[in-house]
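Q: Could you fold this chain for me?
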Amino acid sequence: MSNLDMSEAIRMLAQEKGLSVDALLQVLVEALASAYKRRPDAADEVQVGVDPDTMEFTFTAYDLDEEGNWVNPRDDTPGKAEMGRIAAQTVRQVMSQRIREVERDRKFEEYANREGDLVTGIIERTEARYALLDLGRVEALLPQAEQVPFERPNRGDRSKAYIVEVRRTAKGPQIVVSRTHPGLIKRLFELEVPEIADGVVEIRACAREPGHRTKIAVWSNDHNVDPVGACVGARGARVRMVVTELRGEKIDIVPFSDDLADFVAKALSPAKVSQVIISDDRTQADVIVPDHQLSLAIGREGQNARLAARLTGVRIDIRSESQLAEGVDSGGYAASLEPEVEYAEGEWVANAETGDMEWHAADGTVVSQAEWAEATGTAEPTSETEASPDGSSEGVETDAEAVEDTSAEQEGENLG
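A: Sure. Below is the predicted structure, expressed as structure tokens.
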């Protein structure tokens, strides 16, 4: 092989492996040095040099003295025939191994500083304990603990994930990704909302129950930009893209406030709050809500209250106005789960113009009697549709579920 052909071969191999020509030449030099030492009459140490323009190799041999120093340097470059045998042996035994090592190091360095980044990959394999995500040049591990409950990844599906850890292993870098990390929400909004990517709008806090509901608090550094509206987008287009990627997980977007009482009230949206009392140490909030808003403020199985507490960082106790009047101590949230407490998600109101009864839900939604009958199978509201001891009735619960299943963009617009 001529020097020109060798130079072209190295260039093509570097391009195929995704390495630089200099890195590949360094691998070749190390491999040639290793192969040289296998000769029967080889010196103790050797230094291989290469001219990248002419592809001429030089071998400088050294002896070792009693103290381990390199002495007696001399030129010991093999002849062309012998060089051919060394090159063939090197390619088969040493060079491939060194190239793999360099590739592993390069992949690790590529992802080592990307913890917290968003990656897109294709589900390559699914097991009971984990799934493998193909990122192109490397594979990412999606453990079962980092998968959303009831979300079953299928082979061939394209999915986005959040990098939580990059480990160096003997087989190359191991990238651990997550679909449940709150950071995934922030990264997805950065993709869909230019104002967040530019730093005009910030996500100050995020609380998430993966697969069910997420609350985020947003803040604008420009008083001319509405942070909630920017995240929701025109007709909810921006938040809808995030919800689609999260397989329908509901998202509440609330404005951040430096006033803790105001922030707690907004965090409990879509429920309307009458009063918020903050403790002196700012670790607890006593929230008073209208009677018909109590169940909405607490949420299904306490979800809304839990997320609001995580979002604000304070303990939240919720009481209705009736409980306040009756002198119920703070901690009404726990008491409201007792069987004897009754409340509904709204109330029936007669339309002033038509006289027909309408259901006014706690979040402001109005349902006509005909729509109610179609949804619940109940012809008209009766006393049996009063709230049951568990906080809902057969009719009321259906409407409550409709409130819970309101699309994310509508919730965002209501909050804005």
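A (continued): The first strand starts at residue 45 and ends at 51.
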